[in-house]
Design goal:
The complex is a heterodimer. By secondary structure, chain A is an all-alpha fold. Chain A is built from three helices and no strands. Chain B has a domain of 246 residues. A two-stranded antiparallel ribbon of chain B has the order 1-2. The longest helix of chain B has 32 residues. Classes of the chains: A mainly alpha, B mainly alpha.
Amino acid sequence: MFTVDNCLVLSAVLFAIGVFGVIARRNLLVILMSIEVMLNAVNLAFMSFARQHAFEGGNAGQIFVLIVMAVAAAEAAVGLAILLAFFRNRQTADADEANLMKN
Amino acid sequence: MEHLIAEMKPLSPVLIVFTGALAALLAGVFSKKENSYALPYIGITTVAFAFVALLNYWGRGMIWLLQGAIRIDSFGLYISAIILIACLITFLASIGYAKRLGFEHGEYISLLLFASGGMMLLAMSADLVTLFLSLEIMSISIYALAGMARHRQKCNEAALKYFILGAFSTAFLLFGIALIYGATASTKIHAIAQVQGLKPLLVAGLGMLIVGFGFKVGAAPFHVWVPDAYEGAPATVTGFMAVAVKAAGFAALLRVILIAFPGTWAEYWWPVFWAVALLTMFLGNIIAVFQKNVKRMLAYSGIAHTGYILIGLVSLGIAGSEPYIPGMKALMNPIAGGMLFYLLAYTFMTLGAFAVISLAARDEDDLETLDDFSGLSQRKPVVALAMAVFLISMAGVPPFGGFIAKFYVFKGAIDVQGMLLASGVKEYHALALAILGIITSMFSVYYYLRVVWFMYFREPLEDRPSVAPSWGLHFVIFASSVAIVVLGILPSGFFSVASRGAEALVR
């Protein structure tokens, strides 16, 4: 069941779900969560590949996962702060309301 | 421990910048509010020290650090120098301006330094792990900087859009890195090039990398965040974003593409960049014509400049995919040097123009619409003259730096075409791109000169009280316009430095 190929397929599916979420959903918090889903899909891909390359690639894949997790946390912190500043000024978390600037 | 310190010595420019960032953060926390005017000077001192440390390593060949995670070479140092110049100009321009917009805090200085440090590391990274990490140090700092004036609605919006699209593109870049790791079992950029044969995973990974980097440098069709982020962010931050993020993004793009996917691999990526460059030049220049807001117009012009720099990458790709044509290899270094020269000229023109926008403001808002520029030559004749120099240089009119930069890029494409024709290959992609580039840059003359026309031939609108100018902004505008003129009149010295910078990538 948990073969490397299956994990890779799952990772691709998760990534696609994340992309769909960012494009289709309008709530900024949901968009933020979709981005996290994309990053976790990447983590899954790294883990699967690290398993596949266990004898040749060293542990670069596993290290990468740890770094991605740390960076994702930092990114989420800054992202939520930006979202909060937006919400305070506009009282909304709808992406379509961010429309002050136009061509 | 001593061994580690000795090994880290060549990294001192980056470490100095990070130390300065921490110092600025602490100074911001512990200093009183009335002393906050001193904060930019911490940044200026840091940049000066880092620059000295950087010059120390110029011309010493390649230095590998941390088991091959970082390679300090002429290319990384050249890009780092551009980033430090951009950072210095931003600090000088921020004196006074940051106070007016209410973000004269330690964080502002600190974030600018963190972003610069990340960019320098990005230009030096030889491993995809380091590349990703430094890219994020840069990006996260810039997201926060874009939203620095947090009480302004436009500023919130700019930060929000930049953040969402930036994080989205990072995920693509990361998935690309994962696929490349899957195909090659390595994250080292130099090791990827050793892998023989065409693996579907590797091609997919390359494609996703191109998407990710395309976002960062603002190439069409991944440019949608650029106009909004540039318009909404404070003018000094916009200038820094436009210049330094682009330089760092191009540094990473060039290093990954040219080192990990060299030679005949170029057949797969140059057609993609050909289409991207064409679309970027046309979209940027045509939409810029319809902009009433000068910051937004400069955003689209920045997109167009990305397109021109990409012409260089396409020429390198075409030259690289025909390695058997005699003389083709010798063309590659000048082309890459031309791209690096372009980045340098672009730095001064753009930062100068954004400095004028923040200087010439009449009230608390930035000087933004075209109408606000009417009669600037009567209110501030010297500033208007400098702005005219920046804009005319961007349009690519001699004798300014922008003209020489465009000349090198177009000349590279035409040289490659000439070499192809001389050896009997009848394909005209390089020539077509050069000609279309020249045509689009003729459109651009219209919208740049329109601002000049407003400045010189329109009466000023009703008088609003003018803002007290700071010496920093005056100095920036003066120094940038001098630099643009010098780059235009005596380019050969700077071009040879740029070519040496390019030697680390293509000989």
